[in-house]
Amino acid sequence: MSRTPRLPSSLLRVAACTAVAALALTACGSGSGSGSGSASSGSGTVKIGLITKTDTNPFFVKMKEGAEKAAKQDGAQLMTAAGKFDGDNAGQVTAIENMVAAGVKGILITPSDSKAIVPAIEKAKAKGVMVIALDTPTEPQSAVDALFATDNLKAGELIGEYAKAAMKGKKATIATLDLAPGVSVGVQRHNGFLKGFGVTDKDVACAQDTGGDQAKGQTAMENCLQKESGINVVYTINEPAALGAYTALKAKGREKDVLIVSVDGGCTGTQAVKDGKIAATSQQYPLKMAAEGVKAVVTYAKGGKKASGYIDTGATLIADKALAGVNSKDTGYGLRNCWG
Q1: Beta-carbon neighbour count of residue 112 at 10 Å?
Q2: How many CA atoms lie within 13 A of 229 on its CB side?
Q3: Binning pLDDT at 50, 70 and 90, where does residue 32 land?
Q4: What global pTM score does this model have?
Q5: CA–CA distance, 292 with 320 (Å, rounded to integer)
Q6: Which residues contact 48 (CB under 8 A, 6 or more apart)?
Q7: Domain 9-150+286-307, what architecture?
Q8: 3-class SS at 325?
Q9: CA 176/CA 215 separation, integer angstroms
Q10: Angle of CA points 188, 152, 295, to nearest 5°
């Protein structure tokens, strides 16, 4: 993907507000401002940047909510930016440059392109900005100071173990509705599911990419049913894809005899577990990722140590049907804590 060239230094501050044509960037003022939505020129205020893949996905909305709340509690000021679409690396590069120019002490980012974003991150770090990846690791992971994220391999294992137990020895004909080729989060969840279920890719009857989209999930499930009508276990990268699969199965009258498991644990997805559309999901906690990231930047800005390495923000298996040998919480717990 093409990258946005570095702006001349005389235009960097202007770009912080004019870049809205390319991405959603808030906190553009100078002046004192109030709350976490403005960046002050006051030297005593810690400025923090949050860059998400998009500003419409509920997962990132919750992440922003966590960052805003933590910034307010710590007296910090937050700048936020998002790409126009999932995969908008150029927009994220521009956001990093704008935030560095605005004087942030740290940047929290969910990389749209784990490899292509690295040069921009390295330039920010060279200027003393701490950079923390949220949810999605960079490639290499060491390109950032720290990673606050779900252990996606473990999240996949949890639902794989649940699906295996739920089948009770019955032969499984498996479909996997994945994310996209080479995206680390998707690869880790997929591999975790296979590990938890005790199978390999050779045992998968149909594998389709969905981009985590509900409509594409439905199409992928329709394609898999055409390829192999006997599918009885469906792994999905997230709950939108799972709901798409459910719609396709319902159209064939098969929604009650196919086991669907997923990852994310958003409120809508957890409700789908309660409603019986999804058997189980691994719940993750984006609000916690962002809140802990903000606190780490504030600590660094106030003379503390930089956060380093990988910090696991947890995953919980959510299912209303408890199975022997598989640790889980019910949807009551899941709905109280969805994406918290």
Answers
A1: 25
A2: 2
A3: very low
A4: 0.80
A5: 30
A6: 67, 71, 76, 77, 78, 79, 104, 105, 106, 107, 108, 294, 297, 298
A7: 3-Layer(aba) Sandwich (3.40)
A8: coil
A9: 16
A10: 135
- Top CATH class, 152-283+316-337: alpha beta
Distance of CA 220 to CAs 80, 187, 193, 230, Å?
A: 34, 17, 18, 15
Q: What does DSSP assign to residue 6?
A: P
Question: pLDDT tens, 246-269?
Answer: 999 999 999 999 999 999 999 999
Which residue carries 């020895």 as its tokens? 169
Domain boundaries, the chain: 9-150+286-307, 152-283+316-337
The number of residues making up the chain comes to: 340
Could you give the CA distance from residue 217 to residue 240 in angstroms, rounded to a whole number?
A: 7
In contact, 162 and 261? CB cutoff 8 Å: yes
List Cα–Cα distances, 27 to 16, 17, 39, 105, in angstroms.
Answer: 9, 8, 5, 15
Q: How confident is the model at residue 33 (pLDDT cuts 50, 70, 90)?
A: very low
Give residue for tokens 């009885």.
Answer: 232
Rounded to 10°, the helix 267-274/239-251 angle is 40
Nearest alpha-carbon partner for 210 in 172, 174, 241, 167: 241
CA distance 293 to 131: 9
Q: 110-121, pLDDT tens digit by residue? A: 999 999 999 999
